[in-house]
Design brief:
There is one protein chain. Helices cover 43% and strands 12% of the residues. The chain is of the alpha/beta class and 284 residues long. It has a seven-stranded parallel beta sheet with strand order 3-2-1-4-5-6-7, sandwiched between helices. Helix 1 (24-34) runs parallel beside helix 2 (57-67).
Length: 284
């Protein structure tokens, strides 16, 4: 097992295995854990720079180390079971165990059913659903030995209303599939004390996906920063695993429960209208 944490830094010495994490929300969560002195293993495909996207698994590892954590960049594909097995083995070999799994890797395509390419549908299913299930499953033997084991998936509540099922059927299926896999694992391994929860924001988050896929600069201007997601994830991952599991959690609710009432500091563009006037998908 990995080193136990101190009360002052609950994630100190804890080991996090995350899918993706080269940039955006995943990196923000990794950096928040790194500030406690956590060990972060990143399983990601981004070995070389993308012409339109900042960050690789290697630059993320450098940022994690600069923030105070230990980093293990693993170039691989969460769609590939061999990559997942290697990631688990390398993480255990480097850090001695696994305490936390964060299912961050996700593909988004909001095309309607007639416009959505079958290849893109398959990609969303493979990364979002299959990746979440396989990575979580592969880590269970290690999580059983952890003092406070958590699985956290970045996916929405199961709001299967006609509005959201019909808005982008392919994407909705993939994101709801992540949630269903996580909730199933929560129930299946409850006796082992392994928490499995999902976490989703009320508003859009200022990431490359929001800018390039969903809403461009206008939506970016009224979004919140990835740090709001990271701070909420931190609260969940520090909670007693036997007391918080099988939940579809909302970022703002988690933070309010922790005493945060002013979200202005999370505005992507300071001074813009409250982002809550632009609700994110799946919630309302």
């Amino acid at each position: 097992m990995t080193t136990s944490s101190s009360s002052a830094a609950p994630l100190a010495g804890k080991t996090v295995l995350m899918s993706g994490g080269s940039r955006g929300i995943g990196l923000a969560i990794a950096l928040r854990a790194a500030r406690d002195g956590a060990n972060i293993a990143l399983l990601a495909k981004t070995d070389t720079p993308h012409p339109k996207l900042e960050g690789t698994v290697h630059t993320a590892a450098e940022a994690i180390r600069a923030a105070g954590g230990r980093a293990l960049p693993i170039v691989g594909d969460v769609r590939d079971e061999a990559s997942i097995t290697e990631a688990v083995l390398r993480t255990v070999g480097e850090f001695g165990g696994i305490d936390i799994v964060v299912n961050n890797a996700s593909v988004i395509d909001l095309s309607g059913s007639l416009e959505l390419a079958t290849k893109k549908y398959d990609l969303m299913q493979d990364v979002n659903v299959r990746g979440t299930f396989l990575l979580s499953r592969a880590a269970v033997p290690q999580l059983r030995d952890a003092a406070n084991p958590h699985i956290l998936s970045l996916s929405p509540p199961l709001n299967v209303t006609p509005r959201w099922l019909g808005a982008h059927t392919g994407y909705s299926l993939a994101k709801f599939g992540m949630t269903m896999a996580t909730l199933g694992i929560a129930e299946e391994f409850a006796g082992d004390g392994i928490a499995a929860n999902t976490l989703w924001p009320r508003t859009t988050i200022a990431t490359a996906a929001v800018k390039n896929v969903i809403g461009g600069d206008r939506l970016m201007a009224v979004s919140r920063t990835p740090e709001i997601y990271a701070d909420a994830a931190y609260e969940v991952l520090c909670a007693p695993s036997r007391e918080l599991t099988g939940r579809t959690l909302i970022v703002e609710d988690v933070l309010e429960g922790a005493g945060v009432t002013d979200f202005a500091r999370y505005a992507a563009v300071p001074g813009t209208p409250d982002a809550a006037m632009y609700p994110d998908i799946f919630l309302d």
